[in-house]
Design a protein that fits this description.
It is a single chain. With 168 residues, this protein is of the alpha+beta class. It has a single domain (3-165), classed as Gcn5-related N-acetyltransferase (GNAT) (Aminopeptidase, 3-Layer(aba) Sandwich), CATH 3.40.630. 30% of the residues lie in helices and 26% in strands. It has helices at 6-13, 16-19, 30-38, 91-106, 121-129, 152-155, and strands spanning 50-54, 61-70, 75-82, 111-116, 133-134, 138-140, 143-151. Strands 4, 5, 6 and 7 form a four-stranded antiparallel β-sheet that branches. The protein has a three-stranded antiparallel β-sheet with strand order 1-2-3, with helices on both faces. The relative contact order is 0.13. Bound molecules: coenzyme A.
């Protein structure tokens, strides 16, 4: 994500349908989007983070996907957020699949988790398509959330011809 993405980042993170299940307040302005992008440090420490998702043909920045280290849990989380204009095309699943591959094959992580607020059926469906598994719900920043996870070993099972055997 670069400062050139600030307008698109604002459109994404101020859309009520996008923000509903994120637990975050909507961004109030393009300036706030610029500050968020400029202040994003995860690629320095711990050295991995979220990527901008860009449509290959159009070059449009349509959202983000990637990893985030959660110091409160000592775990690495996968997250994704796309503008509603691009929902329902399998794009979040495609980006998340590439993210898992990077986390396990490049970063050598043992486990990747996902935290989901109750009611976020689209996100749960993405996690199911990734073959992640739901465990016990946990409390995270005062919210009860579903905790989903996948381990490197189970992700390596290639039973459907591709990484993690994910059906899109
Ligand atoms: C979650 C999100 C990234 C999914 O993006 P997407 O590109 O539409 O996802 P995909 O197309 O890869 O898969 C979505 C799946 O959910 C299903 N789905 C969508 N809305 C649904 C609903 N209300 N109930 C049940 N399933 C639903 C779709 O049919 C699809 O499943 P299918 O392939 O079996 O038909 C998108 O909805 C989003 O940005 N939401 C707002 C941000 C957010 O909540 N992020 C996750 C926080 S945990």
């Amino acid at each position: 994500m670069t400062l050139e993405d600030a307008d698109a980042f604002f459109r994404l993170n101020s859309h009520p349908d996008v923000m509903r299940y994120t637990g975050e307040p909507p961004l109030p302005s393009v300036e706030a989007a610029r500050e968020a992008i400029a202040g994003y440090r995860d690629w320095d420490d711990p050295g991995y983070g979220r990527w901008a998702c860009v449509l290959r043909d159009e070059g449009a920045m349509i959202g983000f996907c990637g990893l985030k280290f959660l110091p409160e849990l000592g775990e690495t989380d996968i997250g994704y957020r796309l503008h509603p204009d691009y929902w329902g095309r399998g794009l979040a699943t495609e980006a998340a699949r590439a993210t898992l591959h990077y986390g396990f094959e490049t970063l050598d992580l043992e486990e990747i988790v996902a935290l989901v607020l109750p009611g976020n059926a689209a996100s749960v469906r993405v996690l199911q398509k990734l073959r992640m598994e739901r465990g016990e719900d946990i409390t995270y920043f005062d919210e009860r959330v579903q905790r989903w996870s996948i381990t490197r070993g189970s992700a390596k099972v290639e039973d459907a011809g591709g990484f993690n055997g994910i059906d899109n």
